[in-house]
């Protein structure tokens, strides 16, 4: 059991920041390398090593889509479509790690292309926090400068 969790942690520690660029999907390349080098713990052969989590009761690898299937999706007609959180394998995976890091009081930074759902994921997480937390929203966009951020951060204590 320890080896299983250790291998899964190593995969995410060493390969979690990999991405797909125009020429190469680095996660696929990492999966090929990992599968060839480390044979003690076998990942399922479908997809990449990043497509699986360890189900706590069975201690077996399960696809992230199984966890996302447990989340019900309800379309709120009052919310704009771009603010709607759709549970997919990717959003479930990011939310899992975000929850885990925040539970352990570790910083979280999401990086991705425009439209990849970073803002919706963070807003969803922040709205689910208890009343023990105070949330200050500092919106960023392409034109945000460090001076603008500093000016906004100086004004935040006025609201607290």
Briefly, what is this?
The chain has 160 residues and is mostly helical. 45% of the residues lie in helices and 5% in strands. The longest helix has 15 residues, at 89-103.
Secondary-structure topology with pairs:
Elements: H1 2-15, H2 26-37, E1 52-55, E2 60-63, H3 64-70, H4 89-103, H5 118-127, H6 146-159
Antiparallel strand pairs: 1-2
Helix pairs in contact: 3-4
Shape: globular
Structural class: mainly alpha
Percent range for β-strand residues: 5-15%
Quaternary organization: single chain
Polypeptide structure, described:
This protein is mainly alpha-helical. It has a domain at 1-64. The chain is built from six helices and two strands; from the N terminus they run ααββαααα. The chain has a two-stranded antiparallel sheet with strand order 1-2. It is globular, with a radius of gyration of 19 Å. The mean pLDDT is 86.
């Amino acid at each position: 059991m320890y080896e299983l969790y250790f291998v899964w942690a190593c995969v995410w520690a060493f390969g979690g920041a990999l991405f797909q660029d125009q020429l190469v999907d680095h996660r696929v390349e990492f999966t090929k390398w990992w599968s060839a080098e480390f044979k003690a713990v076998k990942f399922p052969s479908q997809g990449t090593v990043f497509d699986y989590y360890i189900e706590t009761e069975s201690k077996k690898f399960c696809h992230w889509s199984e966890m996302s299937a447990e989340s019900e999706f309800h379309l709120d007609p009052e919310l704009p479509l771009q603010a709607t959180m759709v549970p997919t394998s990717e959003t479930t995976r990011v939310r899992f790690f975000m929850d885990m890091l925040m539970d352990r009081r570790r910083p979280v930074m999401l990086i991705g292309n425009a439209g990849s759902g970073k803002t919706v994921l963070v807003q969803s997480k922040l709205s689910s926090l208890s009343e023990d937390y105070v949330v200050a929203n500092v919106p960023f966009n392409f034109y945000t400068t460090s001076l603008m951020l500093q000016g906004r951060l100086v004004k935040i204590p006025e609201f607290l």
